[in-house]
Every structure is written in C-alpha cells, then in structure tokens.
Design brief:
The protein is of the alpha+beta class. It is built from seven helices and 13 strands. The strands form three sheets. Strands 6-7-8-9-12-13 form a six-stranded mixed beta sheet. Strand 7 and strand 8 form a beta hairpin.
Amino acid sequence: MSTPPLRAVVIPVTPLQQNCTLLWCTATMRGALVDPGGDRPRLIAAAKQHGVTVEKILLTHGHIDHAGAAGLLAEQLGIPIEGPQEADRFWIARLDEDGRAYGIEGKPFEPDRWLEDGDTVLVGDLTLDVYHTPGHTPGHVIFHHVPSRFAQVGDVLFQGSIGRTDFPLGDHQTLIDSVVKKLWPLGDETSFVCGHGPPSTFAHERRTNPFVGDAALGR
C-alpha cells in the first residue's frame, strides 16, 4: 500500500476536550498544529512521537479552547500562526480574560497571516484550501485537502450537531448557510475532524444531522 500524502492525529486538549490536530505531509514529515488550545507539553510530545517537525500553527477560530496556547506555542517553537479570518480579532484580543474564566492559559497575539475565503495554506508539500465559514464566530475558517478528501472544520459542524451560536457575534442562520454553501459542495465522501467529539463524513451528516441534514432542511 502506498503512503497517503496526509496523516493526522487528534490530541484532545484543555478541560473542554478540544480536538487539536497534528497534521503532516508524509513526504517531508513537516506538519502543522491546528487549534492548539492548551496543554503545550502534550502537543510537543505528540509531534516528537510521530517524528513531525511542526512548521506552523493553523487556527479555525479565536475561541480560548482553540487558540489559547497558539501565541505561546508560536513563541516557544519559533513558528508562524496562520488564521483565522480577521473578524475574529475580537476573540483573540480577549484570550487572557477568557483563559482566566475557563482555567486555560491564554495570551492574545497577532497572527502572521489572517486568512480569507479562497486562500491556500502550505504544510510541507500539501496545499490546503481555506473557506471562510462564519456563524459560530465571524472569522471562522475551515481547511480542506482535496486529494485526501479531508477537512478540518473547527466548531462549524459536529457529528450529529452544529456549533453554538449563542456567544457574542454568533449567528445561527449564518452558520447554517456556511455548512450548506461551503461544506456540502466539498463532497459527500469528505471525512472531517471537528473541534469536539468524534470525526464523521459529510455524507453521514447530510443523512442524519438534525440541524443541517437534508431532511432537516427540507432538501
């Protein structure tokens, strides 16, 4: 069997059990940490265990459980942060305050690159497509690797559920639109890692999800 171009392992972090993902290019063994919300020693240990050189941090959005440790980790490893979209500056600015509230280390930072719909990010030899998917937060983005039929969707979509929209700047209809207009066109065969809980596929969610499934939306 040939080696797949992309590999990924999920490392749950923080008391909120957020799915930080170490994903890497198998050709170069260079990788990224997606949404490193906390527990920095665990993340560094995971990269070492898999023989991955972490070259950047990717963020889907600015909530404390996804971004709390990003600035600290970037400083520690000397690597850049890419993402989210700039409308999440509101959330990144309050990471220290939210960190104290949730008992998670948090430090505001300025990403090296804000991302926009249609951008791409490079991880080793991999190219990931960026889609702006607001609703849970205004600057939420997802990452999609076409050859692997794999997406990193943060808190937009979960197995059997969707992201919360009752936080400041959240909007329920905007979130629904992001799923239907940005995620579903990527293809039913796409598997995804979400911000919390087990992975799933777009096909399964279209068939069964009570919020954005085809039956729920009358499609």
